[in-house]
Amino acid sequence: MKNVFLIIGGLFFLNSCQFNEKEKEKNTYEIISLLIDKAGRPIKPPPPPEGQEPFFTTNQIDSIMKQSQDVALFPVLEQEKKRFVKDDSYGEEFNNLLKKLATLNDEVLIDISKIEVPKAFKLDIVDTLLLKSDKRHINKNYDILIYFSNISFSDNYTKAVLSIGTTRGYLNGSSAIVFLEKKDGVWKIVYSKEYEIS
């Protein structure tokens, strides 16, 4: 009888672990999809200096913003190497997730087929060997390269913290820490803070 309870308990534990992994994967790709949609869009032209006529008409700006984008993704979610300082304005739960982010050392391969983005985006996994051998590889082949760190989730998958890096070419990039919250089943960016610009 004792063996039956152990087997049932073991099966229950195994099932809950599998559910947790599926939940983590689902939320990971929801966040990646959201951030690609936000970061991968074309850059809006700046307004003209005060007192000057606009350089672009509204129709031209709309056309620029609707252009398709060739988006390259770094192939893995990597460990965040930067250590972030606690900031009381983030709140206790986000600070705990920020601290946990530094401990996540798995390298998770990105499955491009699980990413949902608008049709205007053409996604590709960047060839890291070409990226290392040619510093202008992004300029020549893509509109933007996006890197993601591992994602630090709350236990109930309602809050998350990660780092995102973007580059539009050689010495043209930035990195930010992003805080997200899931409300009514949808991830939203609560706050983001750039910490590197090149």
Give the uncertain stretches in residue-range form: 10-17
The overall strand count is 9
Class by alpha and beta content: alpha+beta
Strand residue percentage: 25-35%
- From the alpha carbons, calculate the radius of gyration and give it in angstroms: 20 Å
The number of distinct helices, counting runs of at least 4 residues, comes to: 5
Q: What's the shape?
A: globular
Distance between the termini: 65 Å
Organism: Aquimarina hainanensis
Protein name: Lipoprotein
Your description of this structure?
This is Lipoprotein. It is a single chain. With 198 residues, this protein is an alpha+beta fold. It has one domain. It is 34% helix and 27% strand. It has five helices and nine strands. The strands form two sheets. Strands 1, 4, 5, 6, 7, 8 and 9 form a seven-stranded mixed sheet that branches. A two-stranded antiparallel ribbon has the order 2-3. The longest helix has 38 residues. The radius of gyration is 20 Å and the shape is globular. About 4% of the residues have low confidence.
Compact overview of the structure:
This protein is α+β, with helices and mostly antiparallel strands and 198 residues long.
List key phrases describing it.
alpha+beta; 7-stranded mixed sheet; 5 helices; 198 residues; two-stranded antiparallel ribbon; single chain; 9 strands
Please give the structural blueprint:
Elements (H helix, E strand, L loop, with lengths): L1 H38 L18 H8 L3 E5 L2 E2 L14 H10 L6 E2 L11 E5 L2 H6 L3 H5 L2 E5 L3 E2 L5 E9 L5 E11 L2 E12 L1
Parallel strand pairs: 1-4, 1-5
Antiparallel strand pairs: 2-3, 5-7, 6-7, 7-8, 8-9
